[in-house]
Design a protein that fits this description.
This protein is mainly β. It contains 5 helices and 25 strands. The protein is globular, with a radius of gyration of 25 Å.
Length: about 450
């Protein structure tokens, strides 16, 4: 029988649309439609909001809210976090007070949304398309007992005594298709082994092979991972070479991100860094599709090569983080860097081969400039040193090698004479300009 439209049907349709857009199954009363719509990601719009000075991103990288500096500093509370079926919000990556302090100083900030699975289980989303390969080994370490729901109405258990010993459990699927594995129970960790060529071992082909895992048809089937309360560490290489991974949720439960944890995840476009103090070495090495990465107030230091070869990274905003060598080397698309680097040294090769970077303002605390910092920055026009009160040591003139001939080193008027006569800087006199002459 055809449905006869009534006011009740209309209101139900509106409620359903709100639930679909908001990713929720919660009851919505007609009297609260206006509030529910206002709280939808992007303010209820169907497309991503325009980027402004201060931007709020969902766990998957969608820009939900944006404000000018003036608008944001006038806020009395942060915007509402969105809701998603199966996920529980853990709030924004910055408090209002800390965010407003940062924006007052830097003028800009990007803020992300922490989520955790509602049932506490860690979920692995994957798609099997080859009927000849349907029997993967699921590999992880567990300190106790974990229950594995294989996503095809079957379950099994895995047991272990620590988070350093790999446990492998095989399962065979009846047909190709999309599946979700859910791992619940005691704490687990996705680890690799010393003989594994530093690749993720979440899925393996067999119980013995530990080399060239990134060629594994099973490993390449994983496209999304939602972390539960049973994961607290991103181990070194634990997610490396997940070549099809597009989304990895970030929870506040994560206490450590180790070396190359997400290296070579070539489809990952967005990542919100957990509330940890230090970013592991080369955490995102060769994440070639990564366009944006966000930090929280908690992170104060990076390690070397953090974003090396992240060809698609367009903008980075850091607040009171010490930036180490080659942190942004070979980020070909990087155009904008907003930061107050707490490292007194511009680390070696910091922006080496950032081919789209045209401008950089050096922090007032900088006392030394290491080698090859801006080497190969093929678009570089202006390096602004005007906030400095002393001439920094320049280790090597190759800091400014292989860049356009018309680049400018802008310096304070009262330091100009000292600057052009100081060792190594004196070789760059034709590029050094007084602030008042610019």
């Amino acid at each position: 029988m055809a449905r006869t439209d009534t006011l009740g049907h209309f209101l139900t349709d509106v409620a359903d649309a709100i639930r679909t857009k908001g990713g929720t199954s919660a009851d919505i009363q007609a009297s609260s439609f206006d509030t529910a719509i206002a709280n939808l990601p992007g303010g209820g719009g169907t497309t991503e909001v325009e980027e402004k000075d201060v931007n709020f991103y969902d766990y998957d990288g969608k820009r939900l809210y944006s404000y000018t500096k003036t608008e944001f500093l006038a806020l009395s509370s942060l915007p509402n976090t969105p809701t998603h079926e199966g996920l529980t919000s853990q709030g924004w990556s910055w408090s209002l007070a800390d965010a407003q302090t940062s924006v007052t100083e830097l003028g800009e900030l990007d803020i992300g949304h922490y989520v955790i699975t509602s049932d506490g289980a860690t979920k692995i989303y994957f798609s099997f398309t080859d009927e000849y390969r349907l029997s993967p080994y699921l590999c992880f370490a567990v300190n106790g007992t974990a229950t594995i729901d294989w996503g095809d109405n079957t379950t099994s258990t895995a047991t272990g005594t620590d988070l350093t010993t790999l446990v492998k459990t095989q399962h065979t699927y009846a047909t190709t298709g999309d599946y979700v594995i859910s791992i619940s129970g005691d704490e687990i960790c996705f680890i690799t082994t010393s003989s594994s060529s530093n690749q993720s071992m979440i899925f393996t082909m067999d119980n013995t092979t530990t080399t060239n895992l990134y060629e594994n048809i099973y490993t390449n089937a994983i496209y999304k991972i939602e972390l539960g309360s049973n994961v607290t560490t991103l181990e070194g290489y634990g997610f490396a070479h997940l070549n099809s991974l597009k989304v990895l949720t970030t929870s506040k439960n994560i206490t450590s991100v180790q070396q190359q944890a997400l290296a070579y995840c070539t489809f990952l476009e967005f990542y919100l860094f957990p509330s940890v103090t230090t970013a592991g070495p080369a955490s995102f090495y060769e994440c070639r599709a990564l366009k944006r990465a966000l930090f929280s107030k908690t992170t104060t230091s990076t390690n070397s090569s953090l974003f090396n070869y992240c060809y698609s990274l367009e903008k980075i905003t850091t607040y009171n983080i010490a930036l180490k060598s080659s942190a942004f080397a070979n980020c070909y698309s990087l155009k904008k860097v907003v930061c107050n680097n707490t490292e007194n040294i511009l680390a070696s090769s910091l922006f080496n081969n950032c081919r789209s970077l045209a401008y950089y303002k050096v922090e007032s605390t900088t006392t030394r400039v290491r080698g090859a910092v801006f080497a190969g920055c093929l678009s570089l026009k202006l390096v602004d040193f005007t906030s400095l009160s002393d001439v920094p040591t320049l280790d090597n003139v190759n800091t400014f090698s292989n860049i356009p001939d018309d680049y400018i080193i802008l310096v304070p008027d009262d330091l100009y004479n000292s600057w052009i006569t100081t060792n190594n800087w004196s070789s760059l006199t034709s590029h050094i300009m007084k602030e008042s002459d610019y």
